[in-house]
Amino acid sequence: MNTLESPEATPTGSFRDLYDLLKPRVMWLAVFTAAVGVVIAPTQDNLFLSLIILLCISLGAGAAGVLNMWWDKEIDNVMERTSGRPLPNEKISSDDALVFGLSLSMFSVMFLGLVSNWLAAFLLGLTIFFYLVIYSVFLKKTTPQNIVIGGAAGAMPPLIGWVASTGTLSVEPCLLFLFIFLWTPPHFWSLAIITKEDYARASIPMYPVLYGVEKTRKSIFIYTIILISCLIIWS
Q: How far is CA 234 from CA 154, 178, 202, 231, in A?
């Protein structure tokens, strides 16, 4: 009798696998935009608190990435671009990824609330929920507007950074939210043009898949003009 059967996936994976689950490029982009919100906030300088705030936001962004990968495991397995991620490769089990993502979510939200304020913590929790449930579960495979609506999650970090620093909402972080929200569709549609066949294989209704490259380029141009116009008006 063979008692040395290999498990379906390693229990925890390596540190590198866990780090990859965080979607590090997306996470660091969130940290950068959150830092803008923290820096421009009209509060007394407190470098240590600012770093703690950015740590909480980075962990929250990473947690959202983990939960997104947990939900999208089958999609990632089909798409060539994402097939090398830890879950499709069975370097980490789905259960471990879920526990990791939920634990990181709760820690980041609670810690931000304790060191800063609970409005910022609520916004961070709302962002994680929106990215997992609204975008990943309901929008991604049902509408070509998935990235348009889902882009709200990616636009939240500067708003959270500002609120964590000041305890209040204001026009400035809302404008930063708007700029990133308008930037998101042309950015992701440009990438989707390159990986159009990959999305089609996974049955994800990205704009280029449903409407073709030319119409997508026109939409990218329109969003870019709107974004530039908003930036000019603000300046």
A: 21, 11, 40, 5
**CB of 26 within 8 A of CB of 65?**
yes
- Residue 54: closest CA among 102, 125, 124, 155: 124
Backbone angles phi, psi at 144, to 5 degrees: -70, -10
- Domains, the chain, in order of start with CATH, read 15-234 (1.10.600.10)
The tens digit of pLDDT for each residue in 56-112 reads 999 999 999 999 999 999 999 999 999 999 999 999 999 999 999 999 999 999 999
Question: What single-letter amino acid sits at 9?
Answer: A
Give how far the C-alpha of residue 152 lies from the chain's centroid of Cα atoms, to the nearest Å: 10
pTM: 0.92
- Amino acid in the structure at residue 202: A
- CA–CA separation, 226 vs 186, rounded Å? 11
Residues 205, 180: contact at Cβ < 8 Å?
Answer: no
- Using DSSP's 3-state secondary structure scheme, residue 221 falls into helix
**Structure token pair of residue 138:** 């309901």
Q: What is the CA radius of gyration of the chain?
A: 19
- Measured CA to CA, the distance from residue 17 to residue 122 in angstroms comes to 29
Cβ(79)–Cβ(199) below 8 Å: yes
